[in-house]
Write a structure and sequence with these properties.
Layout: H1 6-21, H2 29-33, H3 37-47, H4 52-64, H5 66-69, H6 75-89, H7 94-110, H8 114-118, H9 121-140, H10 148-167, H11 181-190, H12 193-200, H13 204-207
Helix pairs in contact: 3-6, 4-7, 6-9, 7-9, 7-10, 9-11, 10-12
């Protein structure tokens, strides 16, 4: 009987690691895996080895539990995790963005308001990263190629961020690991003019 090829062994090993991190929303397995630095570092490395769909699922798991990732003082390790997440986000499709936006929305409703996310470097980096790629998708894709229902979900997500920024008076925004003009362009694209004008000046702190 032939032994599995080195490629197959590697593929099986990656699948086993992915299954270790991938868990149901009510399961705390992922939380236990990343309760130590080595676990977070392993996740960051694993993300770079996964295919698009596997990465999508793992990132969704992180976003469902953003409140947990804000509890630990592992900012340097989280920066590495965000770098891996961003590489996956940047190659994601519009459906992926919508999936991740829904996960963040659920987290916001249950445990972590958008205001708190925008005040945390790791969480805000993810939010702004999603908006950056969202603008790239909207720039390169015809609206007729994006399902109306998913466009509505995405627009609601962006509007929620805009609402927090518009209504916040004493909120100190965290400096994200990534922030480009595409963030501003996407907000301007999807917010009404009044909402956009109310937050434009507030975002100068992130562009200076």
């Amino acid at each position: 009987e032939m032994r599995p090829t080195l490629y197959q062994q590697r593929k099986n090993f990656i699948a086993e690691l992915h299954n270790s991190f991938h868990c149901d929303e009510d399961d705390d397995l992922l939380e236990r895996m990343v309760s130590i630095r080595k676990g977070v570092t392993l996740m960051a490395r694993l993300l770079m080895l996964l295919d698009r769909n596997q990465a999508k699922i793992l990132i969704k798991g992180v976003l469902n539990r953003l409140h947990f990732f804000m509890k630990k003082d592992y900012q340097d390790t989280y920066n590495k995790l965000f770098e891996s997440m961003w590489r996956c986000i940047a190659r994601g499709r519009f459906d992926d963005l919508v999936c991740w936006a829904e996960a963040i929305g659920q987290c916001s409703e249950k445990t972590l308001p958008f205001t708190s996310m925008l005040q945390n470097q790791f969480a805000s980096s993810i939010l702004w990263g999603l908006l950056i790629h969202g603008e790239e998708v909207y720039t390169s894709t015809s609206p007729v190629d994006m399902a109306v229902e998913k466009q509505n979900i995405w627009s609601t997500f962006v509007q929620q961020i805009g609402d927090v920024l518009s209504n916040a008076t004493d909120v100190k925004l965290a400096t994200p690991a990534l922030f480009t003009a595409a963030c501003l362009q996407h907000l301007e694209r999807l917010l009404d003019k009044k909402a956009w004008l109310s937050i434009e000046d507030k975002l100068t702190v992130l562009t200076s």
